[in-house]
Structure formats: structure tokens, C-alpha cells
Amino acid sequence: MSFDVDVRARRGDVGVGGRFVAGDGLTVLVGPSGVGKTSLLDMIAGLLRPAGGHVRVGGRTLFDGATNLPPEQRRAGYVFQDARLFPHRRVQANLLYGAPDASRLAEVAETLDIVHLLRRWPRTLSGGEARRVAIGRALLSDPAFLLLDEPLSSLDPARREEAMRAIERVRDTRAVPILMVTHDLREAERLGDRVIAVG
Ligand SMILES: Nc1ncnc2c1ncn2[C@@H]1O[C@H](COP(=O)(O)OP(=O)(O)OP(=O)(O)O)[C@@H](O)[C@H]1O
């Protein structure tokens, strides 16, 4: 099983959490705004501590009553809702940040169609380009799994299509399990090997 998750936590006055198991490939979590999808990803990545439950990915326990691995040991490739690129590094340096093997740069840049952007500064990128660079950076960090938080939101239709194709290529060419959050059902059905409702 790629993901075996059962977690809960409090955020302010609301309880958040979720319980699901999912196999290989791309799993989509759908649910309305504010239901706790980002919080769920944060608990899987180790950024938010659950009050209880467990997180197992690829058979490895990341969190349970006895274990609470720090984020760097979980090896999540987390692409946040905003791309969060380093503004003072060019695209290539962003991609190689935390990459153990720089020789994969060309291949990953090709997959995501960002070869022509390598010398650019993040502030000159469109929203869709920045998302693709953020996905590339996550892939190059040699992740055990990918977490994509609404990677297509606020993109215009053309950029959205480019980003969807890039995600499809990653899904179809990499062995890493992917967990992606969206609230767009059409997107979910096109990209997901399975769709799980949260909340
Ligand atoms: N730091 C925080 N302190 C208090 N409440 C928070 C905090 N972060 C999130 N929340 C609340 O927790 C709930 C879940 O937030 P979360 O961002 O996980 O939802 P979401 O499903 O990802 O939403 P969206 O689709 O709008 O991004 C919301 O009600 C939110 O207001």
C-alpha cells in the first residue's frame, strides 16, 4: 500500500483529519475549501503533528504512537499551494537545491518542459511555470513520495493544460506515489488513478 493514513488534529476551533488507504500511482484528495486537505498533507509531511493515528507510506511508518519522524527523514517532495521558490536563486539553482544527484536535472527539466527557463529568475515566471519548477525541485530531491497541494489552482486554461500534461508525464514515468489535493472534480478524474473524498 502506498499510503495508509489515519490522522486527526485540531486547528484553532476545528477538528481536521482523514483516514484512507491508497495504492500506487496518483491519488487525488478532493473536498471543499477549509475542510482540512492542506492540514492532512502537512501531517503526512511531518509539518503538523497529529493528535493521534498513523501515517505509513510505502510500508514505512512515518508517524504512530511510537514514531514521529522529522520532515527531512520522511522524504516527501512537497509542492505547496504557492510555489515558494527561492527568489534570490535562478530556476536552475532552485531545481538543484537539496538535489543529491544533479545529473538528473536535464531529464527532469525535459519532462516538465522548463529547459528554456533554467537561467530565469523566479519573479519573471508565470504562475504555471513556477508550479512546474516547484514540481521539478520536489522530484530532484529524490523523494519517497510527492505531495501536490492544488498544483493547478489559479492558472488560466492554457497554463492549466500544460501543468496537467506535466503531472501526467510525472505520473506515468516515475515510480513515486503521488498524493494530490484539488477541489476540481474534472481535474481529479483526469489525473487520478483513484479519487478520495475528504471531509
Ligand atoms: N494555523 C491555523 N490556526 C487555526 N486554524 C487553522 C490554521 N490553519 C488552518 N486552520 C483552519 O483549519 C481548517 C482546515 O484548513 P486547511 O488549510 O487544512 O483546509 P483546506 O481543505 O486545505 O482548505 P483550502 O482548500 O481552502 O486550501 C480551516 O478551517 C482553517 O481555517
TrEMBL record:
Superkingdom, natural source: Bacteria
SUPFAM superfamilies membership: P-loop containing nucleoside triphosphate hydrolases (SSF52540)
Keyword line: ATP-binding, Nucleotide-binding
Gene Ontology molecular function terms on file: ATP binding; ATP hydrolysis activity
ABC transporter domain boundaries: 2-198
Pfam families: ABC_tran (PF00005)
Keyword Secreted part of the UniProt annotation: no
InterPro entries, per database record: AAA+_ATPase, ABC_transporter-like_ATP-bd, ABC_transporter-like_CS, Molybdenum_import_ModC, P-loop_NTPase
TM helices/strands, residue ranges: none
Protein name: Molybdenum ABC transporter ATP-binding protein
Organism field: Sphingomonas endophytica
